[in-house]
Specification:
By secondary structure, this protein is α+β, with helices and mostly antiparallel strands. The protein is built from 7 helices and 9 strands; from the N terminus they run ααααββββαβββββαα.
Length: 226
């Protein structure tokens, strides 16, 4: 009898010891979005080195993040983007050495996500041109805003014989600066408040022209439009 009891006790202990641990909970939708946005940022950084294939991979990660966040937003609060006319009002009539030739704005949406944007063209001497764009990502604020602005989530510092790309900070906001002396093309992008994206692109210009244009944008007021 004692032997049988001992054997039974051992069996119980052995059974308990072999009990499977419950599987870890799946990552939350937000964690998944962050992961895809992070991968998009990393692949976007590599795109400058590896060309079209890396760009396609980055786009795929960002597309997946968009789909996932769309499902998440369907059950969560929706952030309505500001009226594009408010963004358009922040586009200067003139920039140093440049005159505005046209300005436009619109609100677009898909899958329950709405984005407002306004942009303007500016012309200068000798075919110089600047394009200024202001975007409010609305419900895409946060993780996906970083996906759209992948340069804001990585540190970039590259230099070639004719140009450079680098991460920087403007008015306390994460920014990205790029310029090529051979083509005389460049751009500066700024992520304002994790929600707004201000962008200035130029062709046939000096980098100082682009920087001067960014300096004319009221980024502080842009942040208050939330």
């Amino acid at each position: 009898m004692t032997g049988r009891l001992t054997g039974a006790a051992i069996a119980v202990v052995f059974g308990l010891g072999c009990k499977k641990e419950p599987p870890p909970p799946p990552p939350s939708p937000l964690a998944q979005v962050l992961d895809h946005a992070r991968q998009a940022a990393q692949e976007g950084q590599l795109a400058g080195r590896a060309g079209t294939q890396a760009e396609q991979v980055a786009a795929a990660h960002l597309s997946q993040a968009v789909k996932m966040l769309a499902g998440q937003n369907a059950a969560g609060p929706r952030v309505e983007p500001v009226n594009f006319r408010d963004l358009k009002a922040l586009l200067p009539e003139t920039l140093p050495g440049f005159k505005r030739t046209q300005a436009k704005g619109e609100k677009t949406g898909a899958m329950g996500m709405v984005v407002s944007k306004a942009d303007a063209d500016y012309s200068g001497d000798g075919g110089a041109h600047l394009d200024v764009k202001l975007v409010d990502v609305g419900s895409l604020a946060g993780p996906l805003a970083l996906g759209m602005a992948s340069w804001a989530s990585v540190e970039i510092d590259r230099e070639t014989e004719t140009g450079y790309e680098k991460s920087t900070v403007l008015g306390g906001n994460k920014a990205f600066e790029k310029y090529d002396t051979r083509s005389r093309r460049g751009e500066i992008k700024v992520l304002v408040g994790g929600r707004f994206i201000a962008e200035v692109k130029g062709r046939n210009v000096k980098v100082e022209d682009i920087k001067a244009a960014v300096g004319q944008l009221d980024l502080a007021k842009l942040a208050t439009l939330k």
